[in-house]
Amino acid sequence: MRNPYDVLGVAKNASSKEIKSAYRKLAKQYHPxxxxxxxxxxxxxxxxxxxxxxxxxxxxxxxxxxxEIDAEGKPRFAGFEGAGAGGDPFAGFRRSGxxxxxxxxxxxxxxxxxxAGFSGADIFSQIFGDAFSQGGSAGHAGQGRRTAGGARRxxxxxxxxxxxxxxxxxxxxxxxxxxxxxxxxxxxxxxPRYVEDGQTIRLKGQGEETPFGERGDALVKLRFxxxxxxxxxxxxxxxxxxxxxxxxxxxxxxxxxxxTGRLALTVPxxxxxxKAMRLKGQGLPRKTExxxxxxxxxxxxxxxxxxxxxEALFRQSx
Length: 318
Hints:
4-stranded mixed β-sheet, DnaJ_domain, 9 helices, 3-stranded mixed β-sheet
């Protein structure tokens, strides 16, 4: 690709306003809709947009002016000048001549018994380490993340990680919670409708700055906090329901706490302790649709301190 200053027709010392004005003028002029009969209009329009992606961003423009990235926004590395546009990225590493006084010889070998030379992956690994060679080398789709300028951010570079304990009520309500990252940074997280214990949520662009002009991501691992009331089984919840002996014998409406509020549950007469009563749809959200259920387990409670009248009744019937 041509020098972005030449593409937009502006001087190297042009102001941001001048660059923006030139871009708008050219983009309007060469928009494919304006030139439906020009087969090169689409290519020219894309070239204009690429140039503005570099010059319209202060960091990208500075990196280009310093020679850190090329006209396509890709990083430049020592020894790789001339790569692209038919250039040989390894030209600086080959033999430059044979024989004759003063001739220089450059020949890199891997050191292995077969004498094989370094591969491009070897050299990138030397510069960036395994993180780049495994996740960021250009030319491998899906490895790393491509920035607006075309360069790839190596996978994991600039990412932040945090573990967040969440309450069952927050999970049930898809509430907004706050994750705290190393260094004390806080990020508000809106929980999705469906989350699982141990699930990691990715917040794109919320990580640290990287040399590739793109921020990393913030990764939040969720853990369900142990609850004093609810027991979680899949998407169902289980809770103990205290019921007095009188209500268990005669029947009554008993309040039940659910993650989204209090409900009244009808306890039939002569309900035994340990009976599980189902409240449909009062559990955690399912992945597809609807919610799990809440099961209230009846626990018959005798009066604290005793009840003389109740004791006399049982003695009389014995």
